[in-house]
Amino acid sequence: RLTKKKPDNNQQLFFVQFGGYKKETTQELHDVGLFIEETEQKVKERASKEMKVADIENHVDSIIRVESVIL
Fold this sequence. Notes:
Blueprint: E1 12-21, E2 28-37, H1 40-50, E3 56-65
Antiparallel strand pairs: 1-2, 1-3
């Protein structure tokens, strides 16, 4: 749930762009997700486990820390 109150812990909101390839094409496929974690490294590990967009070479393209949200 989004609120205007800052969290009492070190958790932050991160936007993740995830990519991968299908065997039958060279086109890269993408998906995006939002994760709440303490560090980018934890986000990368979690996204790599939870997100899968293709058959081969699934990978994190980018991780962006979300600094503000318009409510």
